[in-house]
Amino acid sequence: MDIVKIGFLGVAAVLLVIQIRQSRPEFGFYIILGTSLCILTMVLSYFLNITKVLEEFYSYVGEYRSYLNILMKVIGIAYICEFCSNLCKDAGCGAIAGQIELGGKLSVLMLGLPILLTLMETLKEYGG
C-alpha cells in the first residue's frame, strides 16, 4: 500500500532531519524539501486516478461541466498552497507561509465568484 510507504518515508525523513540538524542545520530543509517532493510525486498518481473518475462524471453533468472544472481548480489550489505553505513554515518563514495561504484563499474566492453570481441570478428569477 502506498500510504504505508508514504508514512514510512515521512517518519524516516523526520528522524534523519532530527539527527542532521544537530550538526548541519542548513541541510535539514533540503531533506524536508526532497522528501516532500517524493511524497508529492507519489500522491500525484492518486490525483491522476481521481481525474479519470471525474471524466466519467463529466458525461453525467452535461451543461454543468464548468462547475466541476472549478471544483478541480479549487482542489488543486488548496493542495498547492498547503504544500508550499508547509515548506515555508518548516523553513522558519511563517510570514511567507501566511501570504501563500492568503493568496490561495483569494484565488479560491475568485474562482467561486461566478458560481455565486449564477446562484444570485437563479434566486432573482425565482424570487421575483
How would you characterize the overall build of this protein?
With about 130 residues, the protein is an all-alpha fold. It has one domain. It has four helices and no strands. The longest helix has about 35 residues, at about 25-60. It is elongated.
Note the topology.
Blueprint: H1 2-23, H2 26-61, H3 65-90, H4 94-127
Helix pairs in contact: 1-2, 2-3, 3-4
Low-confidence stretches: none
Distance between the termini: 55 Å
Shape: elongated
State the share of residues found in helices, binned by percent. Answer: over 70%
Number of structural units classed as domains? 1
Topology as a string of helices (H) and strands (E)? HHHH
The pLDDT mean sits at 88
DSSP E strands, number: 0
Q: How many DSSP helices? A: 4
Structural class: mainly alpha
**CA-based gyration radius:** 20 Å
Please summarize the sheet with the most strands: none
Strand content: under 5%
